Amino acid sequence: MAFHRRKSTIWLTAAAAAMAVVAGGATVVAISSSDGAALADGADKSQFVDITKVKPNVKKPKEQQGATKGTFTVDCGRNENQHFNPDNFIAQPGVRNGAQHLHDYVGNLSTNADSNNKSLQKAGTTCKNGDKSAYFWPVVRINDGEEGEEAEQQQPPKKDDKAQQDKDKADKAAARLECPDVASLLPEDVPNAAQAEIDKELANIEKVTDEAEKRLEQVKAQDVNNIIVGPTREKRAAILNRMMLAFSRQGKQAPDLNPAAACTVKEAGQASKADNGAENNDEAQAEGTENKKNQNNKEENANNELEGNEGEIQRPEVVDLTFRGSPVGKVVAMPKFLRVLYGDAKAGQNGPKNARDSWTCTGFEDKVLLNKYPICPQGSKVKRIHDFPSCWDGKNIDSANHRDHIVFPDQNGKCKNGFKAVPQLRISLTYNIPREIQQQGRYAVDSFPEEEHNPLTDHDDFANVMSQQIMNRLVNCVNTGKKCKE
């Protein structure tokens, strides 16, 4: 359902409207009912269902001996600073309005179309523990049915991030240091007696690397190897040796951390695999590249409205970011700058292969809906639950389709051969949407215009920018059964 409220913003062509009818979608401009009658300014109530009439359908893998039951929750707020934009630096790097729908952001303060590893690392964060990771999902809106300026004034103001955009573009064009991840090379069972020392040395790794990155901006290209790369390798090697000795002193076989000593420099304009993402692969093209030439001219207005995505933005009442363990064993650290996708923003066009059950109500978490919005009983609230894939290939931080490098475990909770279990991120979003709004079918998630707010398209994105020591604490909490909150 497209939340259009002003005739001046009607963009649907006859062909697009016909496509919406074929797809079973509905628009506020003209919605086809089952008998062919046009419903003006209505909502498609067929996309809504009473959660109390849904049978329990959530099946959890049986926990095996050695299951990791710890959790690590990060407090990054509820997007109180109103960080919105219609970009997606993972699926559409460098493309303004590449998502064509608005995202809520928590965590990294700089996230936009031009974000890359360097800009993300340099930015601030909304997370209380200093986690600089980027967490973002499409906003939910209420169609209030009002017209004109009064309705527009109810929208939160658009945050002016032009200075940040210019800064990130400059970072992307500049030379940068790329160093191997260390936390992901550590074994699953770091001895408790060695944790403090390991954490200290991981902080030293971060310090040495950050200092080298800052110096890189002041060094001529011909001097980079002698002044930056060589000394940084030596400092990192010394730290890694101390870490390996920490294992040996506890009677444990030391992991081989030597491969993480050497860093490389990406010259100005030379993009890494993670920065480029997969601009040319089929799935990335399906994420909106067919409109690429026009997207940069279709930015959101001052009220954060986009063509096909209008209405009052609903900030989540509760944002819960929790990393969990595996039902079959211990987990290893995620590598820094790992990109992870949940769901498929183009599921209506691509099919449901990558779509995930997301929609439920508080108190009814044993019932999760795939292609319907829930109507919750009195006292219950609309909730989105996003469980990310958690089986990593052990090598890559991204892949051509942004999915092959990290996949879901099987129905028993096991990772396929060659993949390692990493902490599973669960993002839970709870909304205080009035029950009458739910019953009237007047709330929906932002989507690509052609998806017509299909609940099937709910999705979420995550890029890990945690420091090595935060990730080490996370893995330790999960693997030792603790309930940690930071």
From TrEMBL:
UniProt keyword annotation of Ribonucleoprotein present: no
Organism: Lentzea rhizosphaerae
Pfam families: DUF1996
InterPro entries attached to this UniProt entry: DUF1996
Annotated transmembrane regions: none
Taxonomic path: Bacteria, Bacillati, Actinomycetota, Actinomycetes, Pseudonocardiales
Stated name of the protein: DUF1996 domain-containing protein
Biased composition (Basic and acidic residues): 157-173, 289-301
Region Disordered, residue ranges: 146-173, 268-313
Coiled-coil ranges from the UniProt annotation: 195-222
